[in-house]
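Hi everyone,

Forwarding the result from last night's run.
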Amino acid sequence: MSDPIYNHDRLAAVYDSFDAERHDLDAYVALAAELDSRHVIDLGCGTGCLALRLAAAGHTVIAVDPAAASVQVARTKPCSDQVTWPRSSLADISSSRPGAPGGEPGKNGTTRRR
């Protein structure tokens, strides 16, 4: 469930204007590069600032947020076509992950939900 302030269309549209240039994200981009990550899931992506920077750096990115209005803002930004923005929530992703309780047996002793 998202905080209503992040899911309001008019507020989501101006949310980024309250942040500076987001140099705080440099560490996460550097960490993804250091770990040689090819695929990144940005959970709680908000308006997509980190997801878009990671995609621009060459990572394959899936970005998810429960606040549809924030994700809609992210989808309007330059290079947003380089990010996958599924219409799902963290609960959907976590319940389908390998090893989730109640799933079916998978490889290496993991489980998968149907």
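The radius of gyration is 16 Å.

Cheers,
N.
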